[in-house]
Model the fold of this input.
Amino acid sequence: MSSLFAIALTVIAAADETVVVHATLDPPITPYHKQSVFLVIVEAPPGVDARIESMVDRFGGLGVYGVPEYDRELLKNGATRITERYVLDPILIGDYVIEPVVVTWGEVGRIEIPSPSLRVRDLTEEEEAAAMELLPTLADPDLSPPPVYARWYFWVLTAGIVAAVAFAFWWRRRPELGHAAPSKMAWELAFERLEILDKRQDAKHGKISQYYVDLSGIVRYYIEDRFHVHAPEQTTPEFLAEISSAGLLDAAHEGLVAEILRHSDQVKFARYHPTLSEMEKSFAQVLQFVDETVPKAEENAEDEAA
Done:
């Protein structure tokens, strides 16, 4: 019964003596890694210049993918059909209330109809398994994965080993001058990794999936090191649930991390192809998150003392 009710809500229409308005949402329930289409169709008789008020900022926090499609068609009987199509790009799980559709014409003509709401759910076990199976096919067949020695973390690891050997050699021959310098902090490592990722220019080489694998990895490693969370095998929903239940981040940063990781999942698992501006936005969000969660001076002093 509930599913039939949900389907019924996807088509809402209203009319008066001159103008007919339809609003549809397909599908009304979707997993977070897929999109939904919100469609408004208006039919106005000859001589009536009907207009749909913009819906861009009326989707209750849902992102709009790309540029909304707009079409105005003249029918055989002289009537006009106006169509607006919005592709909604959910990231966070939850129920989204979409504001009413408003159509106006002339000086006083106006229709306002309620919009269907969208429920964004988590992946089922079957969907998550299917997404994981798609992962090997996401890479461009003409761009084979680089060898281990060409990956940034190989050189980071190599440099770490060399540094460790040099430190051990120095330690055995050192004068008694006190303790060795402390290791790098979590945010320092995150900034270095972001710099390395930025210099790789993956977008220019078509390595989109690899870019998001490493970008989401930087976020995870930073949270694990900064807040002492160990969750290497957890899925994104499990990881987000753990940091939320532990109260490690405020609401704004929880939302930011969720948006970053779920967007990365869309690219890695759901064949989503981001634009260059979306890649730059994701990078900027990670940089913002790390920068805003660097501890204050007094917190840092406590960590060093501990």
